[in-house]
Fold this sequence. Notes:
By secondary structure, this protein is α+β, with helices and mostly antiparallel strands. The strands form 3 sheets. It has a 3-stranded antiparallel β-sheet with strand order 5-6-7, covered by helices on one side. It is built from 5 helices and 7 strands. α2 (43-50) links the parallel β1 (33-36) and β2 (54-57). The radius of gyration is 23 Å and the shape is elongated. 32% of the residues lie in helices and 14% in strands. It has 2 domains: 1-99, 3-Layer(aba) Sandwich (Rossmann fold); 115-175, no CATH class. The site of S-adenosylmethionine has 13 residues, from α2.
Amino acid sequence: MYILFGKEKVFDTPKPERLLHRIIHIATNPGDLVLDSFAGSGTTGAVAHKVGRRWIMIELGEHCHTHIIPRLKKVIDGEDKGGITQTVNWKGSSGFSYYRLAPSLLEEDKLGNSIINKEYNSEMLAEALCRIEGLTYALSNTFDQQHGYSTERDFIYVTIQNLSYELLSKLSDKVGQ
Ligand SMILES: C[S@@+](CC[C@H](N)C(=O)[O-])C[C@H]1O[C@@H](n2cnc3c(N)ncnc32)[C@H](O)[C@@H]1O
């Protein structure tokens, strides 16, 4: 573990890949999905990857960028020679997707009312509402605004403007029958 991260002691309780290998081998089959919602140094994902399991790791610390992502890139590129690499004859392959979670859409004001989180700009708001309503987020050429669609006939228009009669009429004219 300390070879991978140099001499610097970054994690209090690093687990050897061998231990995770035993657990994953006993508890899962190839192709299964392994979840580590407190990824730490990323050992669970690294081992899961090397033994052909799919994985999801969640981490809120900055070491997600400084340690986990570089570590998994090495695993994928076959450049991680440590841990169980030789035992399982890992040569590298495949890849992963990385997502940054948005903050919660709603927060409470001083009176306990749910209000839109102030961190949300109009684009994030539109994207979030599309997701909640099950529509696909897309920028619209027609409305000069963010909106989404689910079929050719179903659209969502997201705005924090007052919805005046004039605005609704314009939207109605654009959408048509
Ligand atoms: C003890 S480490 C995890 C060790 C790792 N699972 C392993 O097997 O080596 C705990 C990690 O959970 C992260 N963490 C704590 N609270 C979290 C949260 N709410 N969401 C995501 N990660 C969190 C910490 O930043 C820390 O890196």
